[in-house]
Amino acid sequence: MALEAVTLPLFITFICTLALLKFIIQRRSHGKLPPLPPSPPADPIIGHLRYIPTENPELKFTEWSKTYGGPNLLAYSLAPLDIFDTHIHTCLGDVLYLKVPNRQIIVLNSAEAAADLLEKRSGNYSDRPEFPIFDLMGWGNAMPFLRYGKKFQENRQMFQEYLGNTKVAGYSDMQILQAKQLVIEFVEGKKDKEDILQKLGTAIVVRIGFGHDMFREADPVYDTLATKHKYTISHCGPVGATPVDLFPFLRFFPSWFPGTLYANRARSFVSFVRKEAGTAKSSFLQHHMNLLQQEGKDEIHEDFEIIKAAAGTIFAAGSDSLWSTLSVFLLAMVLHPECQVKAQEELDRVLGNPLQRLPDFGDRQSLPFVNCIVQETYRWVAVTPLGMNSLQLLHQWTSNSETSQPYLIERQRTMSTMACLFPRVQLYPRTFGPYPGTREYTGMLSTFNPSRYLPTSEGGYGEPWAAGTFGYGRRKCPGRFLADSNFWIAAATMLTLFSIHRAKDSSGKDIIPEVGLKTGLSSHPNPYECEIKLRNDSARALVAEIKAELLAMD
Ligand code: HEM
User: Fold this and answer.
1) What value, to the nearest 5°, has the Cα angle with vertex 321 and ends 320 and 327?
2) Pairing of strands 530-534, 395-396
3) Which residues are CB-contacts of 294 (< 8 A; sequence separation ≥ 6)?
4) Ligand 1 pocket member 477 (CB < 6 A)
5) Residue 458, pLDDT above cutoff 70
6) How far lies 189's CA from each of 323, 324, 338, 489, 533, in Å?
7) Using CA atoms, how far apart are residues 485 and 174, in angstroms rounded to an integer?
8) Strands 103-108, 95-100: parallel, antiparallel or unpaired by DSSP?
9) Alpha carbons 139 and 271: distance in angstroms, whole number
10) pTM of this prediction?
11) Considering only CA atoms, which of 453, 309, 469 is closest in space to residue 388?
12) Is residue 479 within 6 Å of ligand 1 at its C-beta?
C-alpha cells in the first residue's frame, strides 16, 4: 500500500516530465524551422471553416491570394533564388495556408507552385486523404480516392494499359461515330443541348469501360446511368469538404444527427454502374475479367472488386468531365462568334469549300486554330472529373515533415491545387514575358482568347498551352488522351457543320449568357441558351450522308 502511494505520484511526475520535455524539444526544433505559408485571419478551433464558401470557393481563394498569399518559394531548396525575377514582389500570392477542423490545406495558386511540389516532388505529394463520403458510396476502391501505395500503382497500371496514347488511337473510329451521332441529335432537335452533350460524354466511356453501345434513341442503360448519376452529382456536396469528410465519425450517426445529411444521401447511392453494365463487346471490364479467370480467380476474389471499381471509375471520371467541357466550349462559341468564324475559315481551307468531308484525327496538325480553341476551353473555365469545382483532388503529403524554405509543410497538411487559378499565372510577366495591353483576371470571367497561343508573327502572344488541365505528377489524369481526343473530334465536327448563335429574347435581342459554374460533384456551367444551326448547304448535304450511314448501321 505504502509502495503504491509512492509509485503513483512518481509515475505521474515521470509522465509529466516526459511530456514537458517533448513540448520543449518540439518548440525548439520548430523555432529553427521556417514558418507556415501565409494565411488569412481565422477563428479559433474551426479555423477558416466559416470563411470558405461552399459555392465557388476558388474565387475566395483568389481574393485571399491577392491580400495574403505568399510568393512561390517552395522551390527554394531545389533552385537558386535568382530563378525568380524582380517582378516577384508585385505578384499575386502563390501559396496560402488554410485550416479547417481535422484538415490543413496548402493552396497552390499558380502552375509553378503546383509543379514545384506536385511534379518535382511527386514522390512525396501523391497520397490522398481519406474521403469517407466516397467510401459510403462504395467507391472506396476507385482510383481517385486510393491512398498512394501498391493498390494505387496496380490500378494506375491497368488504366495506363487501356487508356494510354497508343491504345486511345485505336478508339478513333468509335469516337468519330459518336461525334456523328451528336450531330444528328442536334439536327433532329428533339432533346435539350445538355442532354445531347451528356449522352456523348457517357456513350464513349460506357463503350470503352463496359462494352455497351448506346443507341441513339431511348437506351435503358443510359437512362438509368444518367438519372442516378445526375442525382449523385447534385447531392454529394463539395468533394473532401462535406461534414462527413471533415469529421469521419459522423458516418456512424443516425440520420437525424446534424451533419449526417451527406452520409445519408451517399448511403442511398447504389453502385449501379457495376450492375447495369453489359460486357458483350470487348471492353476494359471484359478484358480484365478474362485475365482474372485465366488466373483462376472467381467473382468473390478481392481483385474482382478492384476491377469493377476501376471500370466504374472510367464512367464516373470520364462522362461528366467531357460533358462539362463540351458545354463550356459551346458557351465560349456563343460569347465569341469571332473565334467561330476564324475556326471555320481554317476548316474550310482544309476540308474544302463547299465542304467535302468531316474532319478526322489526321487533320489535327493542319488545324492550329481549332487546337487553340480546344486548349483555351480547358484554360478558360476549368472542369475537373468528379467535380472538384475547380479544386483538383487533394494531394496528400506522405513523409513526416517538409522543411523546404521558406515554408514548413508537415505531414497531414493536405495539398490542394487549383485548376481555376492556373489561368491567372499567365498574367505574370515573369512567366511568359510582357504582354501588350492590360488583361485583368476576374476569376472564371477571364478573357477567352484562343489566339494567345499563336506565334507573335500571327498576332498571338506565343503562350504555351496552359498547365494543369489534367493535374500534376503521379496522380495526373490517366484518361487525358481519351478525353482530349473525344473533345477535339466533337468540337471540330461541330465547328465544321454548325453555327452556334446567341438565343434571342421576346423583343428579338441577343441573350448574352453569364459565365458561372455550378458547385457539386461536377463542375458544370450554369444553364444558358443558344441556337445551333447548320452552317450552309454543303453542311446540310454532309449531314444527309451521315444520317444515311447511321441508319444503315441500325
Ligand atoms: C476533359 C476531361 C477531363 C479532365 C479535364 C480531367 C482532369 C482531371 C484532373 C485535373 C484530375 C486530378 C489529377 C490530380 O489529382 O492531380 C483527374 C484525375 C483522374 N481522371 Fe481525369 N479528366 C478528364 C477526363 C477523364 C477521363 C475520360 C477519364 C477516364 C476514362 C479520367 C479518369 C481520371 C482518373 C481515374 C483520375 C484519378 C487519378 C488518380 O487519382 O491517380 N479523366 N482528371
Assistant:
1) 85
2) unpaired
3) none
4) yes
5) yes
6) 18, 20, 25, 21, 10
7) 11
8) antiparallel
9) 8
10) 0.79
11) 469
12) yes
Residue 372 CB neighbour total at 10 angstroms: 23
Ligand 1 atom 21: residue of nearest CA: 477
Ranges of beta strands (E only) in 397-549 are: 401-402, 409-410, 413-417, 498-502, 530-534
327 lines ligand 1 (CB under 6 A): no
Model confidence pLDDT, tens digit, residues 398-439: 544 444 444 555 444 444 443 323 333 333 333 333 332 233
Q: Residue 440, exposed/middle/buried by CB under 10 A (0-12, 13-18, 19+)? A: exposed
The residue whose CB lies within 8 Å of the most ligand 1 atoms, and thus the one to mutate among 134, 210, 321, is 321
Within 13 Å of residue 444, how many CA atoms lie on the same side as its CB? 27
Long-range Cβ contact pairs of 278-281 (< 8 A, separation 24 or more): 278/210, 278/211, 278/212, 278/221, 279/210, 279/211, 280/211, 280/212, 281/207, 281/211, 281/212, 281/213
- What's the grid cell of residue 334? 456563343
Quote the ipTM score: 0.98
Nearest to 179 by CA among 202, 194, 200: 200
Polymer length in residues for the chain:
554
